[in-house]
Amino acid sequence: MSTNAVTADPNASLKRIEKALPIVFAFAGGCLLFALPYLPGPLHLADFDIFLVSRGLAFGIWAMGLVVLTGYTGLVSFGQSAWLGLGAYAGGFIARDLGSQDILVVMAAAVVVCFLFSAIGGFIVTRVGGVPFAIVTLAVAQIIWSVFNQLPE
Hints:
- This protein has 153 residues and is mainly α.
- It has helices at 12-35, 47-72, 80-96, 103-125, 131-149.
């Protein structure tokens, strides 16, 4: 009698939970940092502290995107910061020139602008892989930098 039955690992669910714990803690910490400016009492932050926390969160999101791109897909991108700059420029333009003072409207519009531009850039960039991918992402980043650097203030 042969025993070809697959034996289930009794610790499989525990291993999955252990793998998910860093993600859960990172999400909980991010939610706490996001809520920090709105907490009353001694946890309430000054304006400069809010600025530092928000900048740290923005760069943290940027770094997570870079980790997903290089870690999970194995693609090296030199154009990652172009999309960060594009979102910042779009948000500043919408807030200053279009007169929107609602931060949610500004953020949503910046996300839409970044999505549209990155969809176009992604359509161009994903045609290649390996070292040419890195070069093409660098070229796209330089094109974006050049276009926005030549715009009038």
